[in-house]
Amino acid sequence: MTGLTAPRMFLAIAALTLLADLAVGESFDRPVEEIRTTNEGEYNAGFMHWHARSLFPDPAEFVVLGEVLSVEAPVSVSDVRGEAVDGRLRVDRIVTCPDRLREDAARVRTLASDCFNDLEVGDRVLVFMVRYEGSYAIPRYWGANSTMGFRVPESKKIGFEGEEVFLDLLSSDRAWSLDLLTPDELRLWAEVDPHGVAFALIADREREKMQDD
Questions:
Q1: Nearest to 145 by CA among 55, 210, 12
Q2: Which helix (H) or strand (E) holds 150?
Q3: Do 47 and 186 touch, CB atoms closer than 8 A?
Q4: What is the mean pLDDT of residues 82-110?
Q5: How far apart are CA 37 and CA 127, in angstroms?
Q6: Measured CA distances, 156 to 146, 191, 195 (Å)
Q7: Which of 180, 192, 205, 213 is most solvent-facing, going by the fewest CB within 10 Å?
Q8: What is the pLDDT of residue 1?
Q9: pLDDT (tens digit, 9 = 90+) per residue, 21-44?
Q10: pTM score of the predicted model
């Protein structure tokens, strides 16, 4: 039996991810009717430890940027993390959300979850959330630099002049479409999720080869 080439291995991973999505398709298809917060404006986002995906090019419907306010002591759990870490994030910016939920999103002051595993107080984080069972939850992003999403490194380009460009891109209709991104925008995405961008480019090239054959 011959082994899979790297491109075909990427496609095999994509196929398995698609099957996983189909298995819980109804949960993802159910629209979010409202973003429910506490009286203090806190939103509790569940962590989908069983559902690994890349940041790019899988669209995230609700994206926020904020700063870590607190990180609790880890607690042992039986999922892939081994430990769950409760924490709170001050939401500084609603990067994108459906227009019908803008008023709800504007009331979100803090975000709480149990996936602050590799974060510290003061870290700035982009949190990408998807629909799940009528609410928003945080998937397990295998290509991100933190369990919760993308930790914005101060020493990286994305933390300086590239940040506003990238945040504006995320709020546009082009953000998740490989064909619509400029080379500079794709490079910014590669700062955030190099694995996801590489995967998308390889898969796109492999599809072109199959069409040519």
A1: 55
A2: strand 150-151
A3: no
A4: 95
A5: 17
A6: 15, 8, 17
A7: 213
A8: 45
A9: 444 444 556 789 999 999 999 999
A10: 0.80
| 155 exposure class (CB count in 10 Å sphere: 0-12, 13-18, 19+) | exposed
DSSP 91-133: EEEEEE--GGGHHHHHT--EEEESB-TT--TT-EEEEEEEEET
- C-alpha distances in angstroms, 51 versus 46, 58, 79, 114, 137? 12, 13, 11, 15, 11
Tens digit of each residue's pLDDT (9 = 90 or more) over 126-144: 999 999 999 999 998 887 8
Report helix angle 194-212 to 183-192, nearest 10.
Answer: 130
Structural tokens at position 53: 């995906």
Q: Cα 125 to chain center, whole Å?
A: 11
The letter for the amino acid at 154 is E
pLDDT in tens, 154-177: 756 566 567 888 999 998 888 988
Give residue 51's Cα distance to chain centre: 12
Question: According to the model, what pLDDT value does residue 159 have?
Answer: 60
In terms of Cβ atoms closer than 10 Å to its own Cβ (0-12, 13-18, 19+), residue 180 is: exposed
Confidence at residue 24, expressed as pLDDT on a 0 to 100 scale: 46
The number of beta carbons lying within 10 Å of the beta carbon of residue 174 is: 13
- In this structure, what token pair is assigned to residue 17? 């991810």
Least confident of 6-10, 55-59, 118-122, 157-161: 6-10
Structure token digits, residue 178: 């490989």
Is the backbone peptide bond immediately before 139 cis, with ω within 30 degrees of 0?
A: no
